[in-house]
Amino acid sequence: MRIHLLGGLAALALIAVPGLAMAEDVKFSLINNSARAIKNFYTSPTTTTDWQEDVLGEDTIAPGTTDEITIADGSTQCVYDMRFVMDDGAEAIEKGIDICKLSSYTLSDAK
User: Fold this and answer.
1) pLDDT for residue 24
2) In the chain, which end has fewer C-beta atoms inside a 10 angstrom radius, N or C?
């Protein structure tokens, strides 16, 4: 009877797995429509208070150019905060961006 119970539990676990939210890489175009280069770009799910690693690494995004961004942090969250650090040290923070629905994001200078 114990073997049947374990087999039943294993079968139940296999049925439940497809219902779990799977983490996927999210890709979108980041358009720098500002007058300054983007030196650092940080993201984090809105459910955390810490910024994750710089998505750009050693790269920068020059004014008037576009770069393809991949968020591959293993999260199943869609709503993220974004922090941009410009080449002159200025910062911009955008909160509550649904990256799962994003095909592109444009950063512009404040008016």
Assistant:
1) 78
2) C
| Cα separation, 98 vs 101, whole angstroms | 6
Question: For the domain that residue 46 is a member of, what is the CATH number?
Answer: 2.60.40
Q: What is the pLDDT of residues 98-108, one digit of tens each?
A: 999 999 999 99
The residue range of the domain holding 62 is: 21-108
**pLDDT of 75:** 83
| Beta strand ranges found along 1-111 (DSSP E) | 26-33, 38-45, 66-71, 79-86, 91-98, 104-108
Question: Is the residue at 91 inside a domain?
Answer: yes
Structurally, the chain folds into a number of domains equal to: 1
Instruction: For the beta carbon of residue 100, count every other beta carbon within 10 angstroms.
Output: 14
